[in-house]
Specification:
The chain has about 425 residues and is of the alpha/beta class. The protein is built from 14 helices and 24 strands. It has a four-stranded mixed β-sheet with strand order 22-23-1-24, covered by helices on one side. Strands 2-15-17-16 form a four-stranded mixed β-sheet. It has a four-stranded mixed β-sheet with strand order 4-5-3-14. The chain starts with a strand and ends with a strand. The model has no long low-confidence stretch (mean pLDDT about 95). Bound molecules: uridine-diphosphate-N-acetylglucosamine. Uridine-diphosphate-N-acetylglucosamine (UD1) binds near residues 163 and 304.
């Protein structure tokens, strides 16, 4: 199993290019199932999850071609509308094929994802939404079997805001008979990016980016070209790493407007930030100040940045409270941070972090994607060597992370 070795202490300095967003690329790739034509995507990140999604789509009959960050997906014929357990268990976003498959092929057999490290993560809202649109759904042998000759528009209220739930139903509704209204929908920028791509394919969608999305079904969708938006979580991760190490970096190919709460928190921690067009510059002098964080759906502070701020708070001046309101078990990085000397007390969904004046390198284990990013940041700050095991989690969501960090002056290498 591959590991990362980091010699901490070097402040990050320089410029780094941000990749396309994983959480936009995955649903948008699934949109290729909705049309018989070709979807041409650019700025697609080279990630394990993207490769897994491509494999899954190919198994169903989509023809895929990848050249660097360009990807062509041809949805010609969907012969096998099925997502097997082996794939869904490695990548929960596989459930995003469900809506498009029912809408276009009239049936789908998709494995239930089951629990995952950060919580139970049910898909009941995806299922209820499709049922409201007229699909017949049964759960047998761990699989969701869905059928509908033609989905019908419906008014659907999400009891809990769900990002992939919103995306699944928005895609399904594009080919339904009549109008679908999604209430208490997710407002995440990745939902808007998907809506932009679907509109380019001929879909009639409005209200994306607000909590009410309206989709008027059309007869069919056609091919389109779409550029994947920048990854706001990768952007935030590099900025936190620079702030925690007392460095100064410039991100290119990113967007500040979708990172507002994260940038506010970094300013509160003492960073100087300036942004224009597609660049963000951060400068940090000395030790960061502690910042309280409470996760909630967009536009509030993202759960996908919680672990990284835990690492920042672990070395900050003062004490901070970190509250996780989205997932019930997203503090697995805490135990690993403690191995480096972090002082963190956990009570339910709340952590009290007392900033230590230094961390000491140690062997740690990555437990999920963003927990891995947290450990990388802690390793960059800690004295001596930190070795992070199970970094396959990191490769699922960060493109060329050690190359990008090395370019910024980090002492980091992959142990094979
Ligand atoms: C997406 C992101 C993930 C991010 C998360 C929250 C992708 C591929 N993944 O995950 O990186 O951490 O949003 O911003 O975009 N829920 C239900 N029933 C459902 C669906 C969700 O109860 O049917 C609950 C979940 O357990 C969770 C909350 O809703 O407590 C939000 O989850 P959701 O937004 O669906 O997360 P994902 O879309 O899986």
């Amino acid at each position: 199993m591959q590991k990362l070795s980091i010699q901490g202490g070097a402040p990050l300095r320089g410029e780094v290019r941000i990749s396309g967003a994983k959480n936009a690329a995955l649903p948008i790739m699934c949109a290729s199932l909705l049309a018989a034509d070709t979807l041409q995507l650019s700025n697609v990140p080279e990630l394990h999850d993207v490769a897994t999604m491509r494999k899954l789509l190919e198994q169903m009959g989509v023809k895929a071609c990848v050249r660097g960050s360009e990807m062509t997906l041809h949805g010609g014929q969907v012969d096998k509308p099925e997502a097997p357990y082996d794939m869904v268990k490695t990548m929960r976003a596989s459930v995003l094929v469900l809506g498009p498959l029912v809408a276009r092929a009239g049936c789908a057999r998709v494995s239930l994802p089951g629990g995952c490290a950060i919580g139970s993560r049910p898909v009941d809202l995806h299922i209820k939404g499709l049922q409201a649109m007229g699909a017949t759904i049964s759960i047998e042998h761990g699989y969701i079997h869905a059928q509908a000759k033609k989905l019908k528009g419906a008014r659907i209220f999400f009891g809990t805001v769900s990002v992939t739930g919103t995306e699944n139903l928005m895609m399904a509704a594009t080919l339904a008979d009549g109008v679908t209204v999604l209430e208490n929908a997710a407002r995440e920028p990745e939902v808007v990016d998907l809506a932009n791509c679907l509109r380019a394919m001929g879909a009639n969608i409005s209200g994306d980016g607000t909590d009410t999305i309206t989709v008027a079904g059309v007869e069919e969708l056609h091919g389109a070209a779409h550029r994947i938006m920048p990854d706001r979580i990768e952007s935030g991760t590099f900025l936190v790493a620079a702030a925690a190490t007392g460095g100064g970096i410039t991100l290119t190919g990113t967007r500040a407007d979708i990172l507002e709460t994260v940038l506010e928190k970094l300013c509160e921690a003492g960073a100087k930030i300036s942004a224009n067009a597609d660049r963000i510059h951060l400068e940090m002098n000395g030790r960061p100040k502690s910042v309280n964080v409470r996760t909630a759906p967009y536009p509030a502070f993202p759960t996908d940045m919680q672990a990284q701020f835990m690492a920042l708070n672990a070395v900050a001046d003062g004490s901070a409270m970190v509250v996780e309101t989205i997932f019930e078990n997203r503090f697995m990085h805490v135990q690993e941070l403690r191995r480096l000397g972090a002082q963190i007390a956990v009570e339910g969904n709340t952590c009290m972090v007392r900033g230590a004046d230094h961390l000491d390198g140690a062997a740690v284990m990555a437990t999920d994607l963003r927990a891995s990013a947290c450990l990388v940041i802690a390793g960059l700050v800690a004295r001596g060597e930190t070795v992070i095991d199970r970094i396959y989690h990191l490769d699922r969501g960060y493109e060329h992370i050690e190359a990008k960090l090395s370019q910024l002056g980090a002492n980091i290498r992959r142990l094979k």
